[in-house]
Amino acid sequence: MTTATMTAKGDLGTFADKATAEAMIAKAKELRPLFMAEAAAGEAQRSPTKAAEKALFDNNILSALLPKRLGGVGLSFTDFCRMQIEIAKGDPAISWVVQIINGTSWVTSLAPDSVQDAVFANGPATVCGAYNPPGKARKVDGGWIINGAWPYTSGSRQSSWAQQGVVMEGDDSPVVPGISMCYIPFSDLTIKDTWYVTGMQGTGSDTSVATDVFIPDGQMVLMDERAGQIDRTKRHFGAPSDVLPVVPVVRTTGIAQLIGGVEAMLEIVTAEAAKKPVLTTTIGPRINSGAYMSDLGEAAAMIDTAKLILFHLVGEFDQLGLTDTELSLDDKARHRAQCAQMIKLVHSASESLMFLAGSSSFSLDKPISRYWKDISMGLRHIQNIPTIGYEIYGRNIAGGEMISPPGAY
Q1: What does the pLDDT read at residue 8?
Q2: Which residues pair with 183 in a beta bridge?
Q3: Domains, the chain, ordered by start
Q4: How far is CA 242 from the centre of its chain?
């Protein structure tokens, strides 16, 4: 029996208790100065520094979302987002790595028993990966030969396993929804240094490469298997998070870090309001300007509204997990649109704050410029594109033909 085996199938148990959750959030706040101090070096080397990485591992932050049954902390999605907001205030790039590894490790906890046996054989493990463009898999006796190159593998240097999307050699099916997932130890992969971007430079989102890598059958999840679905026949089943849908959870929790980053921008602009003048006017400090104060209040209200939406949505996830119920397709479409609304609010607030901060805020030595760049890039993740989210919701409420498979939204 491995450390991952559940004691009672069907007993969903609970998330981490209040004391554990509050301790994780307090630790995230405590680590903020460290993450802020390491952010410039992490951006320069384009991956988390050793000091930041050590803090993540030493405090179980990279296993915060992994179910308790697998040796993880088992935070609720509400508490995970509270923690992520605080981490992002220190460095959005670090919070991105935390999101990717926690999200992918959690998705792995929904995989078939054979995958969980392999990945979590020795307790909590860190998993990251990518699915597009997919690699190629060729069937051989006892397993598969994998070849591929997956860009944007955030957290690759902090992960021990990769969850990679593949299609079968010779299969020309569309990538969505015809993609399978394989699980490969990072020791069998090569990391190619390709992450040269404007924002989120400190995430180490380089390209992971597999060249004729063999994996056993138990480390492949074919697209027609019940991975990511509720499967009570598994031995490894029984956490509240085992009954939740992958895409809505990963998309929604990923917005928490963007909110945390823009909150840090708000703090910076607010602190400067009593010191910096409104140039070319006789107003004096910005705090004396009605225009500045109106824009500042509007930006703060947009952030507050985004947080209200976030915690409403993740609160629904928590309730679903604790009551063993499912999110309907109508609710999934609504969630997609409400996530789009958060993205619009965060984007508007961040842009307004940069106007308030002024052109000097774009200097590379100003922390606010890094927050802005990281947020600007994170907002553009494919899951965050507002127009797609709104269209899915509009088609859903009007009874139109869907543009995306249900599992993709």
Answers
A1: 40
A2: 163
A3: 244-408 (1.20.140.10)
A4: 18
Buried b (16+ CB within 10 A) or exposed e, 234-268: bebbbbbbbbbbbbbbbbbbbbbbbbbbbbbbbeb
Strands 161-168 and 127-140: parallel
pLDDT at res. 131: 82
Q: How far is CA 153 from the centre of its chain?
A: 12
Kindly report, residue by residue over 164-173, the tens digit of the pLDDT: 999 988 766 5
Locate all alpha helices (DSSP H) within 59-177, ordered by sequence.
Answer: 77-90, 92-108, 113-119
Q: Do 177 and 405 touch, CB atoms closer than 8 A?
A: yes
Nearest in space to 261 (alpha carbons), one of 96, 38, 92, 93: 92
In angstroms, rounded to a whole number, what is the distance separating the alpha carbons of residues 368 and 372? 6
- Among residues 138, 135, 154, the alpha carbon closest in space to that of 94 is found at 154
121: DSSP letter: T
Closest CA relative to residue 249, chosen from 102, 348, 390, 360: 102
The alpha carbon of 374 is separated from its chain's Cα centroid by a whole number of angstroms, namely 14
Within 10 A of 105 (CB to CB), how many other CB atoms are there? 29
